[in-house]
Amino acid sequence: MSIQSLNPATEEVVASFNPLSEGDLQNVLNSTAESWTGWKSKSFSERAGLLKKAADQLRAQSEELAEIMAVEMGKPIRMGKEEALKCAAVCDYYADEGESMLAPIPVEGVGRKAFVTFEPLGTVLTVMPWNFPFWQVFRIAAPSLMAGNTVVLKHASNVPQCALAIEKIFVDAGFPANVFRTLLIGASQVETVLDHKSVFAVSLTGSAAAGRKVASAAGARLKKSVMELGGSDPLVVLADADIEEAVKVATKSRCRNTGQTCISAKRFIVMDEVYDEFVSGLTKRMSRLVMGDPFDPKTDMGPMSSGRLRAELQEQVDRCVEAGGKILIGGSIPKRTGYYYPPTIITDISPSADVCKEELFGPVALVFRVHSVDEAVAVANDTPFGLGGSVWSKDEDAAAKVAARIRTGCVYINSLVRSNMHLPFGGTGISGYGRELGSYGIREFVNVKPVCIG
Ligand code: NDP
Predict the structure, then answer these.
(1) Which positions of the chain have pLDDT values less than 70?
(2) Span of the secretion signal (predicted)?
(3) How far apart, in whole angstroms, are the C-alpha atoms of residue 377 and residue 263?
(4) Hey, how many other C-beta atoms are within 10 angstroms of the C-beta on 418?
(5) CB 203, CB 140: distance < 8 Å
(6) How many CB atoms are located within 10 Å of the residue 189 CB?
(7) Strand 123-127 and strand 199-205: pairing?
(8) Fewest beta carbons within 10 Å, which of 87, 141, 217, 385?
(9) Which ligand 1 atom lies nearest to the CA of residue 155?
């Protein structure tokens, strides 16, 4: 079956590609393995120089990369450009910091002298989603390449042109051949890649279902995996919060990228004292968002990435209503071409309803009223996910105490949850394991090797 690029705003197929044959796939993996020998022998400063050139290419090509994102997955142009620039920043970051992050660490009290080194291991397989089709790839590729590994990318099947554009960035930057390769393959070919002897690890971002399959396949071959698997983040609003600011950030968090973001706030847990004010503010702000053509600079929200995921979201919204949820705005598919879904707010649903335990990957806010901090924490933790969360209060110490009780990979106080390149990023529970970004991310895919003298 061909890999198709389908514009979610027009519902038209814009390009199709044949997946690699088994023979071609083996040839690419063998070439990547051969290139590793030269790549790992380069100095940190040589690798850093090339990463800086990749950053230059991302900046120079940001307009056209944004257009490819808009056409393939509906991201509004200005947000696509921001994404390309964020990728440039992460290349610069690891080019500047990578060497010191991987410098040998001396250890006292063992032998005459001991130190811990970090060595590259071979090829990292990255299995990536379409929602941030450049950022998700670069936040793994930049540290992996800087550490001296080679990288192969199996991108989501709906963004083949993004996948090819990413490979071209490395070519245009002057990387040696086959240090970074895009594999146009289907999900069923991932196990073949894992079978290759030079592929030592896989990093997957996507659904828990895909994570379970790929982590099992990696485990069966005793290959390392890092899993970033989405979330159902709580946004907790305490009674003394700045409601206007909380509403502003809540709207951005839930609706940016048409709600298709692993770390968007999805469950809004609001103290009784400020519940009415918060819900009324959220309703006003979410209603004002402009939904439309990703190429129109006024657009806040483009279409969802596919008809399949929009149908799944509608089915979840319908189950919310069956479970007692009340729709304040949105809640149904508009009659227009394109996979659009309107900003939607649902209240009065029990946080323990089955549907509230799922990830709602679209612009749908579930709002819960709570009467105490203990109840807020209990609702926040009443989920199998554990990626991110935020707490809103003018008393930062009180907010920090609540943050400490929330079981997630990160918590932000009075701020938007985001993946920041300086900080480790990853989840607990079915949000996955392992960490990306910061110094933790670059050490996931290396051999941590102590050397002891005497
Ligand atoms: P998937 O998790 O199915 O896809 C993510 C990546 O995994 C794609 O490259 C996909 O390839 C690959 N993949 C899927 N199944 C397998 C498999 N069995 N073996 C190997 N690779 C596999 O995401 P969907 O696009 O279907 O979205 C479904 C849900 O996942 C969303 O509603 C959302 O809840 C969650 N999601 C979370 C994301 C996040 O940022 N954490 C990003 C995207 C989705 P292919 O495209 O060829 O199937």
Answers:
(1) none
(2) none
(3) 18
(4) 16
(5) yes
(6) 17
(7) parallel
(8) 217
(9) 9
The model's pLDDT over 133-165, given as tens digits with 9 standing for 90+, comes to 999 999 999 999 999 999 999 999 999 999 999
CA distance 421 to 334: 37
Give the ranges where 298-380 is alpha helix by DSSP (H).
307-322, 373-380
Q: The sheet that has 180-182: what strands, in order across it?
A: 180-182, 150-154, 123-127, 199-205, 224-228, 432-433
* Domains of the chain with CATH codes: 3-229+429-453 (3.40.605.10), 233-413 (3.40.309.10)
How far are the Cα atoms of 44, 103, 267, 301 from residue 365, in angstroms, in the given order? 45, 45, 6, 15
Residue type, 140: I
Phi, psi of 315 (to 5 degrees): -65, -35
What is the distance between the alpha carbons of residues 248 and 261, in angstroms, rounded to a whole number?
17
Q: Which tokens belong to 451?
A: 């050397």
Q: Please name the amino acid found at residue 356.
A: C
Euclidean distance between CA atoms 402 and 374, whole angstroms: 9
Length of the chain: 454
Nearest to 257 by CA among 357, 373, 129, 141: 129
Residue nearest to atom 11 of ligand 1 (CA): 156
Pocket lining: 305 vs ligand 1, CB cutoff 6 Å: no
186 lines ligand 1 (CB under 6 A): yes
Sign of the dihedral defined by the CA atoms of residues 288, 289, 291, 295, in that order: positive
CA 80 – CA 114 distance, rounded (Å): 47
Of 87, 262, 356, 410, the active-site residue reads 262
- Quote the ligand 1 centre to 32 CA distance (angstroms): 25
Q: What is the pTM of this model?
A: 0.97
Measuring from atom 29 of ligand 1, which residue has the nearest CA? 207
How big is the chain by its Cα radius of gyration, in Å?
A: 22
Sign of CA dihedral 17, 22, 26, 29: positive
SS3 (DSSP) at 373: helix
- From the CA of 73, how far away is ligand 1's center (Å)? 14
Concerning whether 228 is annotated as a catalytic residue, the answer is yes
Q: Which two tokens stand for residue 180?
A: 């970074």
Residue 2 is predicted with a pLDDT of 81
Q: Which residues of 437-452 are buried (b: 16+ CB within 10 A; e: fewer)?
A: bbbbbbbbbbeeeeee
